[in-house]
Amino acid sequence: MSKVVRCALIQATNVIPPSKEPDKLTPAKQKAEVLKIRDAMVDKHVKMIAKAAKQGVKMLCMQEIFSGPYFCAEVHHRWYWLAEPIPGGHITTLMQELARKHGMVLIVPIYEEAMTGVYYNTAVVIDGDGKILGKYRKNHIPEIPPAFTEKFYFKPGNLGYPVFETDYGKVGVYICYDRHFPEGARLLGLNGADIIFNPSATIEGVSKYLWELEQPAHAVANGYFVGAINRVGIEEPFRSGKFYGSSYFCNPRGKIIAQASADKDELLIADLDLDEVRQVRNAWQFFRDRRPETYGDMVKLLP
């Protein structure tokens, strides 16, 4: 009997543009503005999660740092106010309540404060009973000014490549820039993932030509589903580029089976038959035929 799970991705525009000249605001007003932006984005996603629940969705992922704009297009301390601890933070606690209410697995990409002054780009995985199963911290941190100044905001992840046993399947997470690195994608497969979610913020003119190439390739090489999420539109006041949406699901054969639009908010839903993972891995025995004893040079440091 097939194991079909209805899954969803949310791609969304930012609701409230932040101030263009934040230094003209007091620190208290900067904080208030950031939290207002957060609350507006959270409210928007809560409504979309409820819509997904009405359509029978059992597993859902949002875009990278969904609770605000992609603020890494500027360098400013105001965005540290967006970070929160896991567990116990405002967003995480709310999402636990929603997961429990809807019986839905939620993959929630947020800005994490691990301790005062230490921050990660993180996704927390919440099971359908509201229990936090764990978190993934983005391992590969880009520094590509002016649009992607992430090293100012995030430490590199230190939790490896975990896979989470949820009520509906085994879930792995790979965040945005991570997708350019096949090593972690392979480890997620070796750790048993049925589906990988890649919440992203990527713009035209940078890596769009790779958007429908890399992740289907990861799906084929590792025999799992991929849910790839991107933002939508031009975010004020940064105007660093146009986020082109086009979120999609692809199957373990690398075929895109559902895709969102390029220019609007969208809840993308697809029914994934997780038994395809077994079928594809039995047909293509890549894990059997690996030769890890020959790959030692891959982990040597370059000069």
The helix/strand series, from N terminus to C terminus, equals EHEHEEEEEEEHEHHEEEEEEH
Mean pLDDT: 96
Largest sheet properties: 6 strands, mixed
* Amount of helix: 10-25%
Using the 3D structure, state the CATH architecture: 4-Layer Sandwich
Helix count from the secondary structure assignment? 6
Number of domains: 1
Q: Please state the structural category.
A: alpha/beta
Report how far apart the termini are. Answer: 53 Å
**Shape descriptor:** globular
Q: Give the strand content.
A: 25-35%
CATH topology: Nitrilase/N-carbamoyl-D-aminoacid amidohydrolase
Query: Count of DSSP E strands?
Result: 16
* Low-confidence segments: none
- Reading off the top of the CATH hierarchy, the class is best stated as Alpha Beta
Q: How are strands sequenced across the largest beta sheet?
A: 5-4-3-2-1-16
- Global Rg: 19 Å
The CATH homologous superfamily name equals Carbon-nitrogen hydrolase
Give structural notes:
- With 303 residues, the chain is an alpha/beta fold.
- It has a single domain, classed as 4-Layer Sandwich (Nitrilase/N-carbamoyl-D-aminoacid amidohydrolase), CATH 3.60.110.
- The strands form four sheets. Strands 5-4-3-2-1-16 form a six-stranded mixed beta sheet. The protein has a six-stranded mixed beta sheet with strand order 8-9-10-11-14-15, with helices on one face. It has a two-stranded antiparallel sheet with strand order 6-7.
- The mean pLDDT is 96.
- Strand 14 (248-250) and strand 15 form a beta hairpin.
- It has six helices and 16 strands.
- It has helices at 27-54, 90-102, 182-190, 208-211, 214-222, 275-283, and strands at 4-11, 59-61, 105-115, 118-126, 132-137, 143-144, 148-149, 163-165, 170-173, 195-199, 225-229, 232-234, 242-244, 248-250, 256-259, 266-273.
- Helix content is 24%, strand content 26%.
